[in-house]
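Need residues for this backbone.
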């Protein structure tokens, strides 16, 4: 990763077992940076563990364990995934632990979805955020950003917020998940997939993270990041469909006007404060019961139903605006290293490697 200096000490990666966190560990390590993966449990070290790095175990809610995990680290990348409770509730213990451990800067992985799945034209980092959106994930990410900035008001750790859009690439649900849907006959497009996809290849995200770890004068700043190209959802689906030998034109397409604008009741319940107070075993039982009920209702003869289109998908597929990353270019020196075409090629090559029925093998 060119154009960025190494930090003055080890880089902690919290959430190293996840899709983006694991790739951060891979790329930083292969670039020669001292990196320390931090995961919630030993089983999460399956991927990052192959590098024989000094991994540490800490729950994102356990301030004492996190303080020990951050010990000796100069900077930290926060790439935690989870439900709204985890996304918001982990912010304060993570920040306090970093402060106690003497960490200089946190790079927090947020999301472009804080601006909604179909942001209005002119949206940028100065656009006010709302935590009253219809999608609970968006609200959780907004609240997490706000909580982190509040923590920074009384702490000494610098914070940088990165807002990537749709992160695709090897191991991404936007790659493997789409392939799974296509093979199962469950994939579809809204309005033919003509809406803008604010995509970013995973290695470009890692490049932005590395720059944010070292750039001067960026404390408490937020940055949208994306690929260089303006692409549509059809563009994102196309290479995967072609790799699997599926005719993209045969995928079902839905009109946006036919999609329900309501958030399913289950999503509203999961995002509520009351649900978060229910003990975890009871929540697990409620979720299992719902899945059984849902699956029973959704059993229909093969090929007799159009795939379900969620509100989130409808908004994403009808987006009419490409989010800018000019602020990241100006402050961080960010410029995407991987083109969309190359990112798609690498993604299809990974599908082949992972055992998907890629026609003709990978083109790598």
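Answer:
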């Amino acid at each position: 990763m060119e154009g960025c200096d190494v930090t003055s000490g080890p880089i902690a990666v919290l959430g190293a077992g996840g899709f983006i966190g694991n790739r951060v560990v891979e790329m930083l390590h292969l670039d020669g940076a001292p990196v320390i993966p931090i995961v919630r449990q030993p089983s999460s070290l399956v991927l990052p563990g192959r590098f024989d790095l000094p991994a540490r175990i800490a729950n994102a809610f356990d301030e004492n364990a996190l303080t020990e995990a951050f010990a000796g680290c100069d900077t930290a990348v926060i790439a935690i995934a989870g439900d709204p409770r985890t996304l918001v509730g982990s912010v304060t213990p993570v920040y306090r632990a970093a402060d106690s451990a003497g960490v200089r800067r946190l790079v927090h992985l947020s999301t472009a979805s804080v601006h909604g799945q179909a942001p209005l034209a002119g949206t940028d980092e100065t656009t006010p955020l709302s935590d009253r959106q219809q999608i609970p994930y968006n609200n959780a990410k907004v609240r997490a950003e706000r909580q982190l900035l509040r923590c920074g008001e009384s702490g000494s750790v610098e914070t940088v917020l990165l807002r990537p859009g749709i992160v695709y690439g090897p191991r991404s649900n936007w790659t493997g998940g789409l392939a799974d849907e296509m093979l199962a006959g469950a994939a579809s497009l809204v309005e033919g997939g003509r809406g803008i996809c604010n995509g970013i290849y995973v290695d470009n995200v890692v490049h932005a993270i590395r720059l944010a770890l070292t750039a001067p004068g960026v404390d408490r700043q937020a940055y949208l990041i994306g690929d260089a190209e303006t692409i549509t959802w059809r563009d994102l689906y196309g290479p995967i469909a072609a790799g699997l030998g599926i005719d993209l034109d045969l995928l079902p397409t839905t009109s946006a006007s036919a999609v329900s604008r309501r958030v399913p009741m289950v999503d509203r319940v999961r995002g509520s404060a009351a649900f978060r107070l229910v003990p975890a075993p009871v929540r697990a039982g409620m979720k299992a019961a719902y899945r059984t009920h849902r699956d029973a209702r959704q059993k229909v003869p093969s090929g007799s139903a159009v795939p379900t289109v969620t509100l989130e998908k409808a908004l994403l597929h009808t987006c009419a605006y490409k989010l800018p990353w000019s602020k990241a270019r100006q402050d961080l020196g960010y410029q995407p290293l991987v083109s969309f075409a190359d990112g798609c090629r690498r993604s299809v090559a990974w599908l082949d490697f992972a055992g998907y029925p890629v026609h003709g093998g990978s083109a790598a």
